[in-house]
Amino acid sequence: MENINFNNDNSYFKPTAEELAKVQQSRVPLNTTRCTEKWVNILNSWRNHQNVGYTYTLESLSSNEQIEKEMCEFLYGVRTKKGDKYSRASLKNAVASISRHLKNSILYWNYNLLDKNSFPKLYATLDGTLKEMKRLGIGAAKLHEGLLRRVFLWICLLGCPRGGEHYKLLIDQFEDTEKGFIFKKFQQKNDQGGNQHTFEILFPSDIADKVEPNADIRKYISMRHPNCTTKEFYLGISNASGQCYLNRALGEKWIRGMFREICLVCDIDISGRNISNHSGRDTAIQSIFDAGNEEIEAMAISGHNSSADEVLEDKELPKSNTINKNEASKDKEQI
To answer: Which stretches of sequence are listed as region Disordered (predicted)?
Structure first.
C-alpha cells in the first residue's frame, strides 16, 4: 500500500478557535442575537445606575442564589427610558435573553432562568409581576394591536407564506368572498419550479365563536383609514385617539419579530428554540401532515411544485422550529 504524505496535503487544516466560534454562532438566528444583546445592555445599564449600584456583571457571580436575587430585583425595578414599565411580553423576553447570555458566558452553567424548579423565586417574581401588570392594565397590548397579531397568525397558518413574504404582503392580495378570503399568493423565485406567478388559497369558513380567521381579517381591513393610500397589508399602529392604524406600512422591525412575540404573549416557552416568522410556515406544513393529509395537500398551500423538497419528503420538521397544536390553542384574547 502506498504511503501517503499528509504533510504536503492541503486538504486538512486545524480551524482556529475564532473560526469554530463563528460557525457555532451562525446557527443562532440573527433576531435572537440582537434580542440577547439588547437585554444584556439594558441589564448592565440598570446595574450601573446610581440607584442600583452593582459594580460587577451578573455573569461574574458563581452563586445561582445571588443570580436569582439580582434578577428578581431587575425584573421588578427595570423601566424604559420614559420611566414606564416594559410590556409583559418584553419582560418574558428579557429573562429568556439573559438566560442565553449566562449560558454563553459562564463555564459549565447549563441552567434556564425560566425553570421554576431551579429558580423558584425568580419564577414567582416574574409571574407575580405579570399578573400585577395585567390587573392594573399596564403593558397590555391595544385591542387593534392584538387584532393585528391574530391576523398575522391566521395568514401564517392558512396562507403558509415564507418568513420574508410578510414584508411584501399587499392589501390587493386579499379578496373577500362569501366562502372566505382568497389569498392571492406570489410564488417565490426559490420555490420549486422557479417561475413567479400567482396562485390562490381559499381560507376555510369561520366557526362562530371558535375559529374566525375571516372575521378577524375583515375587521382588520375595515379599520384601515378611509383615505388610506398605503398598498402594504400590514399597517403601523397608531397611538392617536380614534385612529387604529397609520397610513403607512408597519416597520420591518415589528414584522420581523411578530411570530416570536405572539409565542411570548401566549406564554409559550420558546427558550432554546429557533423561532422566527418562517416558523409559521413550518408549523402550517407540519400541521397538514399531522392531520393525516397527503403531500399534494401540503403542496397546494405551500406552493411547492415537487415533493423533492426535504420538508415534504420527510414529512417532519424540527420541533424547535414549530409550535404544536396544544401550544397554539390559546385564548385569542391573549393576542
So the answer is: 304-335
Q: Which CATH number fits domain 143-334: 3.90.650.10, 1.10.443.10, 3.40.50.300, 3.90.1150.10?
A: 1.10.443.10
Q: Which residues contact 38 (CB under 8 A, 6 or more apart)?
A: 97
Instruction: Walk along the chain (335 residues) in steps of 10 and give the mean pLDDT of each run.
Output: 59 84 75 87 95 95 96 95 86 92 92 94 94 77 83 88 86 93 74 58 88 93 91 90 88 85 76 73 73 65 55 48 51 49
pLDDT value for 77: 94
Return the pLDDT at 141. Answer: 63
Burial of 40 (0-12, 13-18, 19+ CB in 10 A): buried
At 72, phi and psi to the nearest 5?
Answer: -60, -45
| Cα separation, 168 vs 277, whole angstroms | 13
Q: How many CA atoms lie within 13 A of 213 on its CB side?
A: 19
Residue 314 pLDDT:
45
Tell me if 306 sits within 8 A of 193, measured CB to CB.
yes
- Cα-Cα-Cα-Cα dihedral sign, residues 54, 59, 62, 68: positive
186's enclosing H/E stretch is: strand 181-186
C-alpha cell at 201: 388559497
Interacting residues of 201 by C-beta distance below 8 A, sequence separation 6+: 158, 159, 160, 182, 183, 185, 300, 301
